[in-house]
Amino acid sequence: MPVSFITNQDPAMKVAINAKFHSPANRYCTWHIIRKLFEKIGHSLNSNTNFVTQFKSCISETPIKFEQAW
């Protein structure tokens, strides 16, 4: 039984994985996280290279490490 899945942010995929495997952790691919970041934060933060660099450094394998870096 898989412990986790790394996927894009497709809601149907999340539902299908949860239905088949019941309780694996669903992790989002870093590429999709960054892509969504640029779509959501707006032009002022997108052009702030310091913010983007610091945000990328926060992305980690565990929520605890993310919270500590954030």
Explain what you see:
The chain is mainly alpha-helical and 70 residues long. It has one domain (4-69). The protein contains 5 helices and 2 strands. The chain has helices at residues 11-21, 30-40, 43-46, 49-58, 63-69; strands at 4-7, 25-28. Strands 1-2 form a two-stranded parallel sheet. The chain starts with a strand and ends with a helix. 0% of the residues are buried. The mean pLDDT is 79.
TL;DR?
With 70 residues, the chain is mainly alpha-helical. The protein contains five helices and two strands.
Q: How can the largest sheet be summarized? A: 2 strands, parallel
Class by alpha and beta content: mainly alpha
- Shape designation: elongated
User: Which stretches of 5+ consecutive residues score pLDDT under 50?
Assistant: none
Rg (CA only): 14 Å
Protein traits:
mainly alpha, 70 residues, 5 helices
Question: What is this structure's SSE topology?
Answer:
Elements: E1 4-7, H1 11-21, E2 25-28, H2 30-40, H3 43-46, H4 49-58, H5 63-69
Parallel strand pairs: 1-2
